[in-house]
Amino acid sequence: MTVDAAGKSFTLPSGPATLCFDKDEFMKKDFQVDKFIVDCRKKAPLETLRDDLDLYLKVVRSAMIELINKDYADFVNLSTNLVGMDKAIVNLTTPLGQLKEEVLSVQTAMDEAIEAVQEKIKQQQEIRHKKAVLQRLINITLSVEKIEKLLGIQQGTESSGSPGHLTGPLIERVATEFNKLQFYVTRSKGHRLVEKVKPRIATITTTLQYSLEGSFLSGLETGNTGMLRQCLRTYALIDKTRDAEDLFREHVVRPHMEQIINDDFLRRHDVSVMFEQVLTFIPDSCSVLNNITTGTSGDIVRGYDFVVNAVFPEIVRNLEIRTSSIFAPGNPDVFHKKYSIFTRFLDAFEQCCVSQASVKRLRQHTSYISIIGKWSLPVYFQIRFQDIAGSFEAALCSGLNSTSGPSEFRLVSSNALWFSLTHCWSDSISLPALTHRFVKLNLQCLSRYKTWLDEVYQDEVSRKTESNYDSKQPSSVPDRLSNPSPTGSSGEQFHRSSSPKPAVTMEVPVRYPISTSQIVSLMSDMNKLSFKIFELFEDTIKPQLNAIGFNNTENVKGALKEGIDAACECRPRFWNMVTEDVIKKCSVFLAQVNDIPRLYRRTKKEVPSKPSAYLSGVLKPLNQFCEEHSAALNDQQKTEFLTHVFAALSQQFAEVTSEVLTSTKKMEESLRRLKKARGGDKEKEKGGGISDSDKIRSQIIIDIKTFLGQVEIMGVQPDLIEGYSKIMALAQESESDMAS
């Protein structure tokens, strides 16, 4: 079913079922020939599309002919039906014009009536407004006269400011009428009559406030809760609650605070005593007002907060004016003590507030913000920063010297770092408001320690790579790795430091190498730091972060971990220095393997049964190192160190042993050829049947097994050592050669 332009529905004729297109596509509003052809080409080739279109065209033509034949009579009668249509249209023109004129005249009359009604409504609104203004002016006049009569004010005379005693109900009546008067005056602002009665209103206001002040102060003095409730209700009624709070502040709070908060009092008492006495004022002098203005009973007068709006601002005023010395940050210890006492005072003061809403108002009060800003926390932190960072920097200047007294750490620098990290969080240093700054200081200390370690390492590398020293210095520097505590002629220990850099002078000082003991102590300290830093975080830093409402503590922990990990990155480099030195000392004795052939070649020695003497020399530096530093090395460090050293020694041992065995084999072959040429047998010893070459091999086998046995004795698995397979292969090869 399709709808044509005239709104009539018709159906396209159906075509054969084999058509490659949908006939309804032709009647769509967005039909496009190009798109239609592209879509059809996806289903059939162009020849098929052309044939189907021709076929459907014939179907459409046939349907059109049938439609014309069906409605032929209507087509023929169409012209007959239109005869006389022009005359009928002309006959309708005149009555339609008359009807139009009548409608326009009615519309004009209606518009005029509407305009007249709107004008009347506007006039009525103006009259109503004027009546309302007039009524308000009348009410103003009546209210002024009524209040003046109640207050006993004579019109045309100045008020003496001391009217007769007004009872509570009378004051409340006056306040109610005065509240109405204020409403009328506000609505009639700018009117000449209002300007005329303003002096009378001012007199009424002064008289009413004077009466209220007298009653309020009298109620405070006598503790008359009924009178106080009446006065507070009246103040609230005339929207003068702040006046009541200011009156209480001026006549009650100020005299008391001026006696307590002053420099003379502080000279006689501690600052904590001053704040304690300040706090006692609230239950002693504010309890009556708090009972009247807070609670759930029906006679509560709401809208007041004397503790926040009267007591606290006066406390702040006296602290800022009369005891400004307590804010001085010059002495950080005194400042910390006073600030801590003050924060505890604030906590206690908040406990005196009647509700959480009152606490919120207190924290948003201008005086609260002002007093917090009086404490120079940035200056205090800067002083602490200079003390902590300065001490730490001074300790770094001592280089890798050992601590003199009992300490968790072996080096002065490591001990100073730990002291700096923990000192930030001590009760005498840390402040909740500066927690973020002390966290940053911890991270800065770790970063400085890492930089210092890099400088120490680079300085040592530079020293080793220098080609020569000043001509005045000895041609060689004593090996301090074998002498951990070098001394000068006076016995004074030499110090080495990389930070800060010394001033450049004409004479270049001798730079002494880092000792093995210093490096081992450094590694021990860094291992302790790597796990103690997390103990510090969990036990100290995290609770303080939670106390200030900071919950994303994992980020802080991650930053500390990143800092200590960065500092520990240098450990492999320093360990290489130690292992290289120990390996160097041990490998010196491996050269004696080359002397084994000399000991057995034509010497008539017995078959070897003991390891060579050089093995004790090879292992002596290693044993000595482990004994000297057993307290500083944990099992894991010791195992890693020995594994690395034995791996290097095994490689060197295998190389020199392989050379000896190869040389022995060559010598044996030469002797065999020589004997054969002379007609003799294999080389024999006169005292037995084993050759000199086999004695050499036997000695090497014993040495290899002894070496590997010592490896196991020292707690290292031989099969985990790089070079173990080479040594074992040499031993097996020697045994095979002996058997052949």
Automatic annotation (TrEMBL):
<feature type="compositionally biased region" description="Polar residues">
    <location>
        <begin position="470"/>
        <end position="500"/>
    </location>
</feature>
<dbReference type="GO" id="GO:0015031">
    <property type="term" value="P:protein transport"/>
</dbReference>
<dbReference type="GO" id="GO:0000139">
    <property type="term" value="C:Golgi membrane"/>
</dbReference>
<protein>
    <recommendedName>
        <fullName>Conserved oligomeric Golgi complex subunit 2</fullName>
    </recommendedName>
</protein>
<dbReference type="GO" id="GO:0007030">
    <property type="term" value="P:Golgi organization"/>
</dbReference>
<dbReference type="InterPro" id="IPR009316">
    <property type="entry name" value="COG2"/>
</dbReference>
<keyword id="KW-0333">Golgi apparatus</keyword>
<feature type="domain" description="Conserved oligomeric Golgi complex subunit 2 N-terminal">
    <location>
        <begin position="19"/>
        <end position="92"/>
    </location>
</feature>
<dbReference type="InterPro" id="IPR024602">
    <property type="entry name" value="COG_su2_N"/>
</dbReference>
<dbReference type="GO" id="GO:0017119">
    <property type="term" value="C:Golgi transport complex"/>
</dbReference>
<dbReference type="Pfam" id="PF06148">
    <property type="entry name" value="COG2_N"/>
</dbReference>
<dbReference type="InterPro" id="IPR024603">
    <property type="entry name" value="COG_complex_COG2_C"/>
</dbReference>
<feature type="region of interest" description="Disordered">
    <location>
        <begin position="463"/>
        <end position="501"/>
    </location>
</feature>
<feature type="domain" description="COG complex component COG2 C-terminal">
    <location>
        <begin position="374"/>
        <end position="704"/>
    </location>
</feature>
<dbReference type="Pfam" id="PF12022">
    <property type="entry name" value="COG2_C"/>
</dbReference>
<keyword id="KW-0472">Membrane</keyword>
<comment type="similarity">
    <text>Belongs to the COG2 family.</text>
</comment>
<keyword id="KW-0813">Transport</keyword>
<dbReference type="GO" id="GO:0006891">
    <property type="term" value="P:intra-Golgi vesicle-mediated transport"/>
</dbReference>
<keyword id="KW-0653">Protein transport</keyword>
